[in-house]
Amino acid sequence: MQNATLTQTETAVRGRSQWADARARFLKNKAAMVSLYLLAALVVFAIFGGQLSRYTIDEIDWQMLGMIADLGGPSMENGHYFGVDELGRDLYARTLLGLQISLMVGIIGAVVAAIFGTLYGAVSGYAGGQTDSIMMRTVDILTSVPLFFIIIMLLVVFGQSILMIFVGIGLTNWLGMARVVRGQTLSLKNKEFVEAARALGVPTLTIIRRHIVPNLIGVVVVYTSLLVPQMILLESTISFLGLGVQEPQTSLGLLISEGTSTMQYGTFWQLGYPLAFFMLVLFCFYYIGDGLRDALDPKDR
Amino acid sequence: MALPTLLILVIVTFVLMHAAPGGPFTSEKPLPPQVLANIEAKYGLNEPLYKQIFMYLQGIVTEFDFGPSYVYKDRTVNDIIAQGLPVTLTYGAWVIVLMLAVGVPLGMIAALKQNTWIDYLAVGFSILADLLPNFIMGPILILIFTLWLGWLPGGGWNGGQWEYMVMPVIALATSYMASITRLTRSSMLEVLRSNFIRTARAKGLPERTIILRHALKPALMPVISYLSPVFVYVITGSFIVDAIFSTGGLGTYFTNAAFNRDYAVMMGVTLLTGGLTILFNLFVDLLYSWIDPQIRY
Question: Is the model's pLDDT at A22 over the cut of 60?
Fold first, then answer.
């Protein structure tokens, strides 16, 4: 009897870590959890959906040509689950590729921006003084440069490849991250627990590893997850203008653009399917990012 | 601050242009080397890079001359800007007006009636609008108002008649209108919880006076500083709008220039919009210090 009460108080006293807290908060957020499952389903679909496809992305169905508005609609019998586009290519296969590319651009672009921005911001914040002010002034100047133009110039000059889109998008979007991380590092550096660790003679590297980095991860994760939909939007905007991914490769932005230009002929499926997937992906990332922010950055609530 | 930014912009664009494999005159049909050399001499492309940058800057500063287009032999970059810029600025101004005219009141009402159906409606609208970026709003609007209802023309500019401007402006304004709504709502909520509002209430001031005379100004501060990104968005977004509605703004020319590798036009448009952005930021800063005299520059 006495034993039982003892164990009970022991478990009650054992505190929960910051991460367990955050996880609990995230799990309770319904919109974020639904989005997470939905996104997982989308990723699985993007990876394995190709197994179901009966056509490749650039295969032209000659029987459809000239009668696409009548025959080209979505149909289970002929294997064009989402219909065909104006050139008679299978829209299912193309939407799938667009989904893959958009997800890839979003995640890789955000991660590139996150790594670069974190390194820059952490160095700037930890170094402090003159170095910090020069590094931050550089960021200020770069922020007021219209980056969209620079990305397009990069694409025009170095060729419109997927790799160049990653580089361009990633390299031009690290500024916000650098600023956030720098601010966080600066305030952490002067916190009592870091001072205490320093007074106790803990080596600098250990301080960074054990006290600075774990406290930065929250901000970095939140900011990265909020960057993902922005990256997807940016890539789609560029592709919509026709300056991004090149045919026969495609992305959701390009598919939406093609769908837009043909909808006056009544081929609404050509706009509908890519649009639905696009909005679904944005919606998922948007709510996951929001949920992560609520979970990891409680002071904001 | 403004000058180094512009200088960096010039240098970056110039260096990028010159890093390109193949100049603006490389075509499928190679020109005889002598002709190529002549053309390059005409456009000053045979000079060393730093001299070209200097000449270009000199042209802009002394005569506001952005140089000739490399593709349209009979047109200068100035002509192109003179055609595109007024269009972009006209509907861009309406976009900003519409965003503020709808976003700010909606956010305020949502904050004042927090947790009522009006609040949920406003928040719901702002989330939905967030998922509808301009290149999706555009086609949807055309689908509804041109193809189904037949009320509005699906594209063109026609000297800026209002029928031609409605859809571009709405398409461009929606997503940032949503952000402004959310921003106003959250900052209004924060202000309403602060001490000086409590004091005003304790004094027995009518609610109307409290909101309009005390709460509105501080609640608008984040919205005003948000205007700088809004401006950048309107400029970039206008490219999409020009592509969807063929409004013939700067975006049309920039996109064409990007396809044709017309570097002179690309650079001119980039520098011009960069300069306009910087000017606008300056204006926002001034507005800021006018509203809040505590801020001094």
Answer: yes
Closest C-alpha to A258, from A74, A96, A86, A103? A86
Q: What is the three-class DSSP state of A78?
A: coil
> 3-state DSSP: chain A helix, strand, coil percent, rounded to 5?
75, 0, 25
Distance (Å, whole) CA A70 – CA A92: 18
Which range is most confident: B31-35, B84-88, B101-105, B204-208? B101-105
| B133 with A233: Cβ contact below 8 A | yes
Mean pLDDT across chain B, nearest whole number? Answer: 81
Residues of A with CB below 8 A from B183's CB? none
Residue tagged 């050139």 (tokens): A87
Contact present, A292 and A110 (Cβ < 8 Å): no
- How many residues are recorded in chain A? 301
Which residues lie across from A89 on neighbouring strands? A60
Q: What is the pLDDT of residue A82?
A: 78
pLDDT at A300 (0 to 100): 45
Tokens of B260: 């044709």
Residue B52: what pLDDT? 76
Alpha-carbon distance values, A165 to A46, A152, B33, B235 (Å): 20, 9, 34, 21
Helices (H), chain B: 2-19, 33-42, 49-63, 77-112, 117-130, 134-141, 162-192, 195-202, 207-209, 216-245, 250-260, 263-291
Contact A272, B136 (CB under 8 A): no
B102/B125 Cα distance (integer angstroms): 12
The partner residue sitting opposite A141, judged by closest CB among B8, B136, B139, is: B8
DSSP state string for B101-163: HHHHHHHHHHHHTTTSHHHHHHHHHHHHHHT--HHHHHHHHIIIIIIIS--S-SS--GGG-HH
Query: What crossing angle do the helices spanning B250-260 and B77-112 adopt, rounded to 10°?
Result: 120
Higher pLDDT, A136 or B263: A136
Q: What digits encode the pLDDT tens for the residues B152-194?
A: 777 777 776 777 888 888 888 888 888 888 888 888 888 888 8
pLDDT of A1 over the 50 cut: no
CB contact under 8 A, B239 and A271: no
Question: What is residue A70's predicted lDDT score, i.e. its pLDDT?
Answer: 67
Amino acid identity for residue A240 in this structure? F
Are the beta carbons of B1 and A140 separated by less than 8 Å? yes
Measured distance CA(B92)–CA(B94) in Å, rounded: 5
What's the mean pLDDT in A1-18? 55
- Quickly count: other Cβ atoms within 10 Å of residue B3's Cβ: 8
Residue A301: what pLDDT? Answer: 41
The answer for residues whose C-beta is within 8 angstroms of residue A71's C-beta and 6 or more apart is: A63, A64
Contacts of A257 in chain B (CB under 8 A): 135, 243
Residue B68 reports pLDDT greater than 70: yes
Q: Do B266 and A253 touch (CB under 8 A)?
A: no
Helix (H, G, I), strand (E, B) or coil at A145: coil
For chain B positions 221-240, those within 8 Å of chain A (CB to CB) are 232, 235-236, 239-240
Residues of B with CB below 8 A from A281's CB? none
Contact with chain A for residue B60, Cβ under 8 A:
no
